Amino acid sequence: MSATPDAAPRPPRPSLGPGSPFQCLFDESPDAGSSLTEELAAVYGAPWRLPAPSARPYVYSNFVVSRDGRVSFAEPGHMSGVDVAGFDLHDKWLMALLRSRADAILMGDNTLRIEPDHIWTAEFLWPDDAEAFRAQRRAEGRLPRPLQVFLSLEGDLDVRAAAVFADEAAHVVVATTEAGAARARTLAAPAARVDVLALGREAVDVGELLGRLGADYGVSTVLCEGGPRAYGSVIAARCLDDEFLTLSPTVIGSAPDRPRPSLVEGVAFPADAHPRSRPLSLHRGGEMLYLRSRYAFP
Q1: So where are the chain's domains?
Q2: Staple partner for 126: which of 57, 96, 158, 230, CB 3.0–4.6 Å?
Q3: pLDDT, tens digit, 9 for 90 and up, residues 247-296
């Protein structure tokens, strides 16, 4: 009897990351909390230690801006930040990395309309490194998937068109106004668990939302992914800690008949009492620069 041939060896797993590691140009972070796992830190080029816990969750953001400070072409089929980034792989991988440390991901409802097929998890963006991202979550004691949190003044989410509401593993929180909550509670999600929070009469109280996420859901880290008005409301509430900003070489421009949004919209700060940020680190990947800054408020 001839011997049974061995099964063909599996091809080696490709290394983590977008093809080449990030180049760390400087890192002056003062934090001493938990860090990235060794294999993720090797790709990012720094440990990215979290700051010490405070009374509310640590809030960090992730955006890509054009050379002239715009965040979207605002044209049908070209509404999201991937067009600004030119579908850059380093930018996409870093977005997944940032999601891997979030207990909750915060967005405005327009982001849901722009990307109805999206699921806001690390593995959705970068499935090849899903196990490494899951290991990061396990190391920090996080749930397998982050809460999907949507700010919505009117509570008019199209649950039938959005993939996240058809995902049995998704837990969605809709943060809205009193009138918006009445509308949102009439919407029946196909599969996801959905909680509706009424957090204000005219606008959503972002500070109260973060307090509820911490107290009721055990959230210690929140990643804000936009859009510009949702981001403006977080900054106006003085609730942003760190900003991760991808600096793209793309130039977009703006004109009266073709307006393009900037990073912060819907709020204007006075000249004598405006927030500031200071750089903590700068990385490079290909043609992109990746800046991390810490916010301070007057």
Answers
A1: 58-65+87-239
A2: 96
A3: 999 999 999 999 999 999 999 999 999 999 999 999 999 999 999 999 99
Question: Contact, 191 vs 241, CB < 8 A?
Answer: no
Residue 282 to residue 21: CA distance in whole angstroms: 14
**pLDDT of 2:** 40
End-to-end CA distance of the chain: 83
pTM: 0.93
3-state secondary structure of 58: strand
Pairing of strands 242-247, 147-152: unpaired
Bond preceding residue 227 cis, omega within 30 of 0: yes
Which amino acid is it at 8? A
**CATH code for the structural domain at 58-65+87-239:** 3.40.430.10
Contact between 29 and 47 under an 8 Å Cβ cutoff? The reply is no
| pLDDT tens figures, 114-136 | 999 999 999 999 999 999 999 99
Low-confidence ranges of the chain (pLDDT < 70): 1-14
For the chain, the C-alpha Rg in angstroms (whole number) is: 20
- Whole-angstrom CA distances from 113 to 72, 109, 164, 221, 225 are 14, 7, 12, 25, 14
User: Do the Cβ atoms of 184 and 164 come closer than 8 Å?
Assistant: no
H or E element in which residue 235 lies: helix 228-236
Identity of the amino acid at 78: H
Residue 15 has a pLDDT of 81
| Sheet of 171-176, strand order | 23-27, 276-285, 288-296, 242-247, 58-65, 221-226, 104-108, 147-152, 171-176, 193-198
